[in-house]
Amino acid sequence: MRWLVVAHEKEIPGFRERVKAGFTAHALGIGQFAALAELARLMASEKPAGVLLAGTCGSPHKEDVFKLFQCQHFVLPFVEHEELPEFLPRAARTEAAAEFAGLPGATVLQNHGISIEAAKFSRNQGYIPPDYPRPVLENMEAASLALYCHEKGVPFTAVLCVTNQIGSGGRAEWKENFKRAGEILAQKIFF
After folding, report:
1. 84 has pLDDT over 90
2. pTM for this one?
């Protein structure tokens, strides 16, 4: 059985009621730590055939707002004056848990929240391999979940709808666009 997961059930209208046969619905929690802890707890008792994350994200490009992306490439942020130990994975390409025809690919950069400084977001892209697809999207949960699934041999796909341009107005734009993005996700995810 594959899992359809979201950070919070409010991300997609009627999330649990609309889940199709072949999927089990789970709300994992908001942020990389809560979502990863819940995924690990669930996978301790059952290994899914795949995990499909539906969620929202930011993009450096205003023209991406309300576009959907299918993501198989995930990266942890580079933090100035800090370095990850060499044995920790910084990036991963996951095997697809689901395919959505016509959706462009993108790379997801993990962040703790909505970036309000576009230049800092750009500087944090230091671990992105040059062959990973563009644009680079910002999301709070996807990279942690993807790296965990990759490590456990579980296919993982994120389908993300852009709600905001990364920058000083990102939080207000996210709030304004959150509901519509959820409706767009619901139309694509639930066919």
Report:
1. no
2. 0.94
